[in-house]
């Protein structure tokens, strides 16, 4: 099977890290293609950045309509509903995937994310996924997303310190890492803190493999029905939906 892993921000080094984390857990026979758009925000921190990352996400999916599944590799599950309406193959957000796997191994989990700016979107998703009661707390390590790309920035230590505080103070039994840029930290932090530490990129790849193996496709009976063909105007004209799921109007 072929899984497109889309990092909705434009930072290629982060996409490389995400691709490596995905390939590290992919089953034999699963091909991972990791991409990011060449337009939009370099990092997504809060609602404003998020909305400007969605066209790039949809654009990358439109370039690869033949994939068996899609992963949205941004922890606030950027554009997840729009992406599910756009294609028929399963689409999994790393936030939702990590939350669900955490509930399989712990009664209560906490989330350690980047900046406080990112917390409301994550809490909002927990409520709409029906998992708010299983989350002890969403915490910020106050590490900007792109500091995770800078060796020696102290980002890793700050994330580790926040994991320690969470296990000590929140009654958390597992930790969910709240940024795709933390994908390479999960195994080390789990060993260091002797608790399940979950990376959403790995979680999403395994859930995609399960959905595809079970022959599941995104339901087109309700809100994820394909967008009705129409002509968008101006800047977004190239994104005009056509009658073909996963395709857009030609330039
Ligand atoms: C992410 N931002 O996973 C989120 C994390 C955050 O660019 N990739 C980003 O802070 O919301």
Q: What does this 3D model show about the protein?
A:
With 251 residues, the chain is of the alpha/beta class. 38% of the residues lie in helices and 14% in strands. It has 8 helices and 8 strands, in the order βαβαβαβαβαβαβαβα. It has helices at residues 12-25, 47-62, 80-86, 94-105, 119-128, 155-169, 186-193, 200-213; strands spanning 2-6, 31-35, 69-72, 91-93, 109-113, 135-140, 174-178, 197-199. It has a 4-stranded parallel β-sheet with strand order 2-1-3-4, with helices on both faces. It has a 4-stranded parallel β-sheet with strand order 6-5-7-8, with helices on both faces. Helix 4 crosses helix 8. It is globular. The model has no long low-confidence stretch (mean pLDDT 96). Bound molecules: [(4R)-2,5-dioxoimidazolidin-4-yl]acetic acid. [(4R)-2,5-dioxoimidazolidin-4-yl]acetic acid is lined by residues 9, 43-45, 74-76, 113-114, 118, 145, 179-181. [(4R)-2,5-dioxoimidazolidin-4-yl]acetic acid (5HY) is lined by residues 9, 43-45, 74-76, 113-114, 118, 145, 179-181.
* Class derived from helix and strand content: alpha/beta
Q: Bound compounds, please?
A: [(4R)-2,5-dioxoimidazolidin-4-yl]acetic acid
Largest sheet: 4 strands, parallel
User: What would the average pLDDT be, to the nearest integer?
Assistant: 96
Q: Give the tally of β-strands.
A: 8
Low-confidence stretches: none
Q: How many DSSP helices?
A: 8
Largest sheet strand order: 2-1-3-4
């Amino acid at each position: 099977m072929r899984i497109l892993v889309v990092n909705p921000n434009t930072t290629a080094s982060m996409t490389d890290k995400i691709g490596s984390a995905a390939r590290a857990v992919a089953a034999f026979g699963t091909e991972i293609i990791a991409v990011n758009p060449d337009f939009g925000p370099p990092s997504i921190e809060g609602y404003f950045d998020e909305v400007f990352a969605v066209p790039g996400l949809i654009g990358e999916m439109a370039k690869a309509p033949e994939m068996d599944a899609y992963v949205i590799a941004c922890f606030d599950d950027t554009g997840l509903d729009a992406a599910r309406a756009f294609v028929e193959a399963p689409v999994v957000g790393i936030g939702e995937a990590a939350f669900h796997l955490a509930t399989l191994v712990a009664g209560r989990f906490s989330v350690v994310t980047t900046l406080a700016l990112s917390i409301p979107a994550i809490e909002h998703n927990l409520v709409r996924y029906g998992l708010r009661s299983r989350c002890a707390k969403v915490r910020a390590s106050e590490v900007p997303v792109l500091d995770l790309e800078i060796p020696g920035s102290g980002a890793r230590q700050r994330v580790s310190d926040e994991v320690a505080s969470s296990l000590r103070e929140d009654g958390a039994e597992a930790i969910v890492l709240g940024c795709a840029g933390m994908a390479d930290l999960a195994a080390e932090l789990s060993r260091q803190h002797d608790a399940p530490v979950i990376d959403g990129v790995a979680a999403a790849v395994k859930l995609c493999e399960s959905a595809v193996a079970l022959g599941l496709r995104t339901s087109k009976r309700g809100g994820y029905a394909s967008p009705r063909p129409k002509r968008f105007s101006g800047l977004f004209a190239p994104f005009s939906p056509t009658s073909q799921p996963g395709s857009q109007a030609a330039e």
